[in-house]
Amino acid sequence: MINLRKGIFLTLISMIFLLKAKAQEEDLLKLVEEDKPQKEIVKNAFKATRIINTQSMEFLAPGTMDFTILHRFGQLDRGVNNLFGLDEASMRMAFDFGITKNLMIGVGRSTYKKELDAFFKYAPVRQSAGSSAFPVTIALASGLTLNTLPWQDPVRQNYFTSRMAFFSQVIIGRKFSEVLSLQLTPTMIHYNLVPTVDTSNDIYALGIGGRYKLAKRFSFNWDYSYVINSLDKNVYTNPLSVGIDIETGGHVFQLHFSNSTGMNERAFVTETSGHWDKTEVRFGFNLSRIFQIKKRKED
Amino acid sequence: MKKIIIVILALFLVNSAMAQGKYFTKSGKITFDATTKESPEKVQAVTKTAVAVLDAASGNIQFSVLMRGFQFEHALMEEHFHENYVESTKYPKATFKGQLEGVSALAKDGTYELPVKGQLSLHGASRDIQTKVKVVVSGTNMNATATFMAPLADYNIAIPGLVADKLAKTASVKVECLLQPLKN
Q: If A63 and its partner were Cys, which of A80, A207, A241, A294 is the partner (CB 3.0–4.6 Å)?
């Protein structure tokens, strides 16, 4: 009898302990967590705000300044005496600023045609994941360029506005995976002054570009623009650039080969004269250094 | 024998009466710091969206932290943290499931220092950690703070050679939570 009671007693005790043990394995987080995934902007489709020449779907973070030095050496076909083009250089220096997470502005100056440029880039919608996800980033980039060379023909009546050209583009981009991002960039360039009466003031082009990530901080990039109505078909061709991005802490190095000399939209879309098949290609790099110029406020 | 059973049952009842229920927060603050002397800038991130639940009866304590919630003073550092180090898209959450010892003391107002043990899962790796939690009980609220060290290599977070001396190999993690009663 005593043994039976002992048995019941032990069973009860072990049941109590089992109950307690079970309680400890309980998933407490289930009690408070909502399962709804939050909407989240897809970031890092590209390492820099330019794929190579073309504006990318990326934006600078608000409060940061990106100082970039873009360099294009001479053509490879210049031979060893010219160190395959390294003796010459064309440069664009630029300061870009992140204003909000969907808006950035920038100014630059190129040695090619001693040209100043300014632009803004704004994204009404960004690619996002989570609830109410959106598959692509749609951005608009627009800017003007100002040629500051002496007038070609000082005799005729020259207007200041004749120095100006404008560009507008729509950037439709998608980060397909951690490694692959692609982008379409229809572009229009408007010239206030064109060389001949037969030349259209408006040049249209369709840009495509992308990147393929080879390692965490290393990617392969390319961009190309198909120019629909060239300024002069005998002189100018479509710009194609291929290269790599290397990210090192605060810097992004972009090393590439390109057939264009100019580095603002007007110059590389409409005035690319090198031909890849004749090795009229230039080695170049973009160096980007990002500075935090405004402290982020705590929220 | 019957008496003993009654006593046991009574104890069990008392035990559940003493069980102070569950406490939680959805705005726990977690500070991550990997600054070294050579760091040119402060390598520090804060999130204020950590979710934590404490079962004051059993001492069972659990955390869930959305990695994306971590914000840095430097925007670029933040991007690199998420893209290259903790890979927030691939591993969106960090969790901690553990056991707080001596929770019965928490029934009364006061300041207590209790040991906690458990498993931290981060960046696809799980490691046992232990530390001490300072709990300040006042009325129905508990203010819990704890600090522990997390060697980055334990969680398969690789540091590239170029920045090896600018980043601490072991990050210090500070947790601050104001826990409130959870009504079921």
A: A294
